[in-house]
Amino acid sequence: MKNKLEKIKQEVVRALQQAIGSAQLDDLKVKYLGRRGEVNKIMKQIASLTEKEKKEIGQLANQIKSDIVAEFSKYKHVANEKTSNSFLDVTLPGEKIESGHLHPITIVRQELEDLFSSLGFMILDGPELESDYYNFEALNIPKHHPARDMQDTFYIDHKNAAGEFDLVLRTHTSPMQVRAMQKYGAPLRCVVPGRVFRNEATDACHEHTLYQLEGLMIDKNISIANLIAVVKEMLSGMFKQEIKTRVRPGYFPFVEPGIEFDMGCLVCHGQKCPSCKHSGWVEMMGAGMVHPNVLKAGGIDPNVYSGFAFGMGIDRLVMMKYGINDIRHFEGGDLRFLQQF
Ligand code: DAH
């Protein structure tokens, strides 16, 4: 029994020298010091010995047991070190720190701002919660005029002193035309990028929250030719290639004459797809010569000055630029979409 105890101790010392991780160390502990471990097996046999042997072997067994415990505590630290050392692979790539990035709409908005600043346009910002007056009336859309139906509006549940609902989520960036005229007078060159809202049923080309860029240029002798030149300059700056455009007559109460610009669909290149409503053309903007009533609302004399205005959907432009076929991706918050930019 004495020999057996000595042998167990030697075994433990050897096994600990070879152990390479805390898992192995735990296994060894169970094997030798556990309830049914080697040391306890001997302890149990002591009961059947003579009194003299009991004393002698008992003492030795206790001594060996505490030696083994001491061995384990010595090796625990060493075994842990072995684990980390043996698994350290210095060639593994480091952990990447995720950094944020711009939304595709912000990227394009900033490009547009740069383009228009280089043409001498101011960049203005306007309120998203807009008065009924600036959103409609100042733009030659009186109350109860059927043109109000052109834009599905989110009215704010708030009445003014006269008991009328007078606040809306702006349906377009055009209200800034009159605000800018009132503030800066003529001559004037500005663009207004911003978020607008429509009470729309959403699909691949309609969203309730979208982005527009309004443009306004007022001076003496401004004509539609200036408008077309500025739009063409913007498109070639944006897409770095010749873009097909077409101009159609369009009705907007705040311009006269009013036109609509379409551009050739860059998602399908004329093959017809859902983003161009299967027509090969994408409506890019409404535009026209600023209506005399709007100039007057802005405090500018229509007999002296004329101007053009345009309002463009930034979302559409981004869809064309990156070949995105569903407008709902922009507000969807899906990282698989967003991380591509
Ligand atoms: N505000 C119009 C809309 O959202 C777009 C528009 C049309 C803006 C003609 C203009 C314009 O400045 O001249 O539908």
Q: What would you call the shape?
A: rod-shaped
Share of β-strand residues:
15-25%
Element order: H for helix, E for strand: HHHHHEEHEHEEHEEEHEHHH
Structure summary, number of beta strands: 9
Mean pLDDT: 90
Q: Tell me the radius of gyration.
A: 39 Å
Q: Provide the list of bound ligands, each named once.
A: 3,4-dihydroxyphenylalanine
- Determine the N-to-C terminus distance: 75 Å
Main sheet? 7 strands, mixed
Helix and strand composition category: alpha+beta
Helix count from the secondary structure assignment: 12
* Lateral strand order in the biggest sheet: 1-4-5-9-8-7-6
Helix coverage percent: 40-55%
Poorly predicted regions: none
Features:
single chain, 341 residues, alpha+beta, seven-stranded mixed sheet, two-stranded antiparallel ribbon, 12 helices, 9 strands, binds 3,4-dihydroxyphenylalanine
